[in-house]
């Protein structure tokens, strides 16, 4: 697992290591500086002329220690102090005094010299206020300067929990962070400021943190490999689930097709598509493996019979907002006795009356994109973007659902488990049909007896990996959602 911490969680781990384990703060600082220098050397940066810009906190203390280690190695190093003298932390002052002993050059301004490497050690993790005044001017000037740019722990100006840019932020080519990735480093809009992210182990005691359910995590491929449903030698189509997809209104056969093909691609045994009669011919011709059942008007008995057939239901892709669609969605949510994946138009219909979510008999996986989530929450987009994790957690505490909040960094929330943040995928997935594919992927994994929460996490991760694979072949501009389906096999072949 990759654990992703907030600044507060990281500070708790630091304190526990220092106060309970007994490792002095200066020892951790020395380890941080040593690992940073090792990573810089491994990156083969040009150390011809190095500038280390230090603040007055412990991040600045890391900067002073890095400058000293580079100086001892024989590199030309200068320090520029941008903090407040009277607000130096104890460790910062001690590291400054050691640097003075080594007679490391101290710059009084940033004018008139070029640097091959610029190291940002101004704020680090924990910044909560907007960057203003002299700090703003210095970061703005550093961003304009040439040279390879590196941040210690966190690019200065990025909020560690949300990724918000607090007025201005240092744009790094490389960020070396300690013990764990931080939320603000992987979330937008902070992620592009990080550059390449390297996580350095400096001996922070982590067990007390990683055992908690309020932590955020992501998969590594080994986790995905271990958790994905297995194929059995002695099996048949019924062994891998019967999936009912209620998808595709008039003119929306593409949504139905993408969803069903994705479900089959992840290994589902049987897929039945319940769609408008207008879609029958094209679906039977393009996906003969699927069972196609159609409607022209609401038929209670027909819907009930389909619900009895299915092990899992996926509903909403291209379904439309008609009264007929509303009747079908209401019936499924209230009376289905198998898990359901709910997407697109079904979400917009539910947003009219969310109380129906509390009437569900079985687990619901909701897969809203950000706009659909604003309708479910009755909030403005700016409010959701500013603190989407808090909104997601509040929503999943109020309603008995697993929520897959789709964005550049998709997050899976459920009140019974930690937050899952997906780190796979790219801008190629920002295309029509991508959500239909994801619904099919999650539904298909769920049909193979994965738990609803794990099906959601596995599905999001696999969907992103397939998008990455497709982008490698075709470039991020030209990938179609059907290409993502086609590349699922390349990922699953590895397991």
Structure description:
This protein is α/β, with parallel strands linked by helices. The protein folds into two domains: 2-211, YjeF N-terminal domain (Rossmann fold, 3-Layer(aba) Sandwich); 221-492, 3-Layer(aba) Sandwich (UDP-N-acetylmuramoyl-L-alanine:D-glutamate ligase). The protein has 20 helices and 19 strands. The chain has helices at residues 7-21, 25-42, 58-72, 90-101, 133-144, 183-186, 191-194, 207-210, 221-227, 253-265, 280-286, 300-309, 323-335, 344-350, 370-377, 381-386, 388-398, 434-447, 452-474, 481-492; strands at residues 2-5, 50-54, 77-81, 105-107, 117-121, 148-152, 174-178, 181-182, 196-200, 216-218, 242-246, 270-276, 291-295, 312-315, 340-342, 364-366, 401-405, 411-413, 419-421. It has a twelve-stranded mixed β-sheet, with helices on both faces. Helix 2 (25-42) crosses helix 3 and helix 3 runs parallel beside helix 4 (90-101). The longest helix is centred in the C-terminal third of the chain and has 23 residues, at 452-474.
List the helices and strands and how they pair.
Blueprint: E1 2-5, H1 7-21, H2 25-42, E2 50-54, H3 58-72, E3 77-81, H4 90-101, E4 105-107, E5 117-121, H5 133-144, E6 148-152, E7 174-178, E8 181-182, H6 183-186, H7 191-194, E9 196-200, H8 207-210, E10 216-218, H9 221-227, E11 242-246, H10 253-265, E12 270-276, H11 280-286, E13 291-295, H12 300-309, E14 312-315, H13 323-335, E15 340-342, H14 344-350, E16 364-366, H15 370-377, H16 381-386, H17 388-398, E17 401-405, E18 411-413, E19 419-421, H18 434-447, H19 452-474, H20 481-492
Parallel strand pairs: 1-8, 2-3, 2-5, 3-4, 5-6, 6-7, 7-9, 10-19, 11-12, 11-14, 12-13, 14-15, 15-16, 16-17
Antiparallel strand pairs: 1-10, 17-18, 18-19
Helix pairs in contact: 2-3, 3-4, 10-18, 10-20, 12-13, 18-19, 19-20
